[in-house]
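quick one before i forget lol
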Amino acid sequence: MRQDQRPYWVKKAYLKFRYWYAEHFLRPACDELGPHHTIMKPWHISINGPNIRIGKCVTLIGEPNTPVKLGVWGREPGQGSITVGDYVLMSPGTRISASDEITIGDGVMMANSVYITDCDWHGIYDRTERSERVTPVHVGNNVWLGDHCVVLKGVTIGENSVVAANAIVTKDVPANVVVAGNPARVVKELDPERGFTTRADFFAEPVKQAEF
């Protein structure tokens, strides 16, 4: 890791400006944005649409060529929602597009360029209208979504499961497994008896964590 050579006062000033930017521009774009967030390069985070709620202690990382994008385009004005739990990590390039409902559980980790959508956005034959069928997406607590994986409409992913890099998830994933491939299938079962150390553990004392 490249060592930060900036004087301490410069880094402190930058962090204050970064926090101010997130509070001034991103908080008003959300129906809810929890406390103790870490939003890196918030000028490369895009939040659009109604009913977007984000929990506490989230980490969002934007980059110039790979911004983080959350968008709700409901069927009618005011419809559709994205709900993001506590302690969630969104790496550069994460994109979440909701027509009706997408729910992300606590402690979910999203690697680079993860894409989640609950809709095809147009039919195969009628490409001017989306399907009338509502197909929400639910990602359980402590799920790990690998680099460039895609989670498609109507999918529920059980808690603690891992989606491998470049996997395409087209159907439900049970809890405590690893899935890989296109379409994604179970390749390994995890042992929940061993226990999991999660981002919730890391942020158990967010004030002390921030001071550290």
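fyi Helices lie at 8-26, 199-202, 206-211.
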